[in-house]
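Lab meeting minutes (informal)
Scribe: AK
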Amino acid sequence: MGDVMADNVAAIKLSAAETAEPSGATSANSEPVATSAANGVSSSDDTIADGTAAAPSRVMQNLSVDVPRATWDSVVAVFVKDWRGEWRTRAALNASTLFAVAAPIALSFSVARQTLSPETLAGCLWAVLLFAALVGLPRAFVKEEESGTATLLRLNCPPEAVLWGKALFNFALLVVTQAAAVPIFAVLLSARIEQPGALLLALLGGDVGLAVAATVLGAIASQARARGALFSAIAVPVLLPLLVAASTATAAAFGARTELWPALQMIVAYDVVAAAAAWMLFDFVWSA
């Protein structure tokens, strides 16, 4: 636990130091202006002309606050911190991957010697991926509350950097989980992938929406006592439109006679709306 907190604090301080340099440069550049203004005042006041003219500039420097900005470097710092911590414990990765691999195996025994339609296969696939995501994605914020680094993260990183760094981590976690689950699902349930490109687009588009929505919902649920139950309760209704569109697009990829492009357009629309809503609301959620 001590190593995890030390790595988290070091990563947060590193991101704050990198993003604070432009503000420090601005304060340094503004010193001549403040000094010249002070000299102008000292010409009309004999008490300041004895060498205290530089005092206003020093006061302004002491009052200046280096506020970290939501730059790409700070987003990457949050992502690297989370990925290093996850790779050390593998709590969310093991839980999500185990469920995503075990569920198709159980389904293959239940539907042995049965031919499932593409629509049924698509629905089963996204049901497996959804519950695997519900198992692992809340860990992005729960581990911050459990290890006591949430306060440090609030003080040293802007909300935008936390949002997109956590969303990028959740997206990577989903991609790794699906890389193991989808091939096993296709083999065990005899799913014929007639349009691999459409399946890839549906999976990536669904991952983006899942990652962004789960990031905001995870921040809300992490501050409650029953974190896991609350996250599942609020995530399923929010993610339902995305699951319908992703299942439709996946069914088309499996060979169903359904329209592919309207489903993909709905996935993209959901991703855009989810990203915009997360960007506008996360500051209030994270600072509460």
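Next up, CB showed the second protein from the same session:
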Amino acid sequence: MKNLASGTAEGTAYMRYYESLRPTKQRICNDYLAYHLTAWWVKLVARICAPLPSSFMDRAFEKKGRGVSGFLAVRTRVFDDFVLEKASAGMKQFVILGAGLDSRPYRFAQQLNDIKIFEVDHPLSQEVKKQRLSRYFGELPGNVNYVPVDFTIDNLVECLEKAGFDLCLPTMFTMEGVSMYLPEEALRETLSLIQINSGPASCVILDYIFAAALDGRLQSRITRHMNSLKFIFNEPVLFGIEYGQAQSFLCSLGFDQVEDFPPQKLYELYFKPVVPNRPISDVYAIVTAVKCDCVS
């Protein structure tokens, strides 16, 4: 169903909303805008599930895949921390690739006040989001440049430049929930493009799925669930990175200062101090990297 806005974006937005309802000392992230950006049917599900005890909901989520809700929560937190850290460090531009229902430009409007923001997404998905933003805020927020891109026919860099993107400025790029839905060649091409067409010290953060989860070496209910959704939303999982190979993968594309966040590291940093008994999926990881200035 190619004419639907991203189904995975709707689902993950609901998960961010649900995480934000947890007690302050237990929640990993707080996306207070997530609910307002979702579709009517997601809001309906949220209302129906509201009276249910959290223990019941947590068990229901775990049936889709152990620790997946935990990973989605910590992914939001790590991306939040990355954006805020890089903004304070002097980044001049912020490009959200595959923006979906990302709310950071609006949640962090004050912190990103002096930064040019570009949301890149499929034209249909972006139009749906713009309508929801206008409905919630009363008008479309003016702090974001919306860049509709159909990657099958459009040139990413040309579209960004037309929207006011400056190739010479230090830029932070986020790719949240994107890499696993791209063929390897497309992911490599996208990362190479942003490495070549951005200023010094530009950086990127992305999450990825382990290759072993795709070929069966690592058995997980979540990969079966994700693949079942391709028949509904036409969003099959296509590519994964081998465990421990994220650094070499990004270095081969002109990045350095690579920091990989496998599940255990995410657990130690974010879960162990506050919710030590909460599981995190062993299928996903997050990686950050900085443009290597010695490569042009």
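CB comment: Residues 167 and 197 are 5 Å apart (CA to CA).
No objections, moving on.
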